[in-house]
Design goal:
The protein has 175 residues and is mainly β. It has 2 domains: 89 residues, Beta Barrel (Elongation Factor Tu (Ef-tu), domain 3); 73 residues, PRC-barrel domain (SH3 type barrels). Helices cover 7% and strands 46% of the residues. A hairpin with a 2-residue loop joins β9 and β10. The longest helix is centred in the middle third of the chain and has 7 residues. It is elongated and about 60 Å long. The termini are far apart.
């Protein structure tokens, strides 16, 4: 399995018991969706390795306690500690309307209600306080805030996101 075919689910943050159980910090708003998964991919030195899950349950708020079939001791758990976990993209719940996963809108066209065609979404920058669409307009990079109030429509059929940005925002990049 390739990383491009998967989504990041979370990270193993600590050991839970002397029997090899671990706690996973999930990167999701709905941890209960992943409470009963059978298998998961663990990133071990750059390769995704499948692990089968013997038992899992939610632990406190956003932690998932996992017991893997082949991890039976603290030493085994140490070997996977701090590893990233992935699942195949097809296991992502389908989103509708104006909700979307960052990876699914890469390559979409962005159109502003007033300005018209802005360009193609190249990536999402979520390392700042406000996530940003990075849009390519004929070699010029525009940063459009990913704000619910700006997003008018996400059209998956035409692969277009329509936005209504504040007046002058796009012009800042083009002058």
């Amino acid at each position: 399995m390739r990383k491009e075919d998967c989504f990041y689910l979370g990270k193993i943050v600590k050991k839970y018991s002397f029997k090899g159980e671990v706690l996973v910090k999930l990167d999701t708003d709905e941890p209960e969706l992943y409470e009963n998964i059978d298998a998961i991919f663990i990133d071990l030195r750059g390769s995704l390795v499948p692990f089968f899950i013997e038992d899992s349950q939610l632990h406190k708020s956003d932690l998932l306690r996992l017991k893997f079939e082949d991890i039976t001791s603290e030493k085994d758990a140490d070997a996977i500690l701090k590893s990233d976990l992935y699942l195949p993209l097809e296991l992502l719940p389908k989103l509708e309307g104006n909700k979307f996963y960052f990876h699914e809108v890469i390559g979409f066209s962005m159109v502003d209600k007033s300005f018209g065609n802005i360009g193609i979404i190249k990536s999402i920058n979520d390392s700042t306080a406000q996530a940003l669409f990075e849009v390519d307009r004929d070699g010029i990079e525009l940063l459009i805030p990913m704000n619910d109030e700006f997003i008018v429509e996400v059209n998956r059929e035409t692969k277009t996101i329509t936005v209504d940005t504040p007046e002058g925002l796009i012009d800042l990049y083009l002058e």
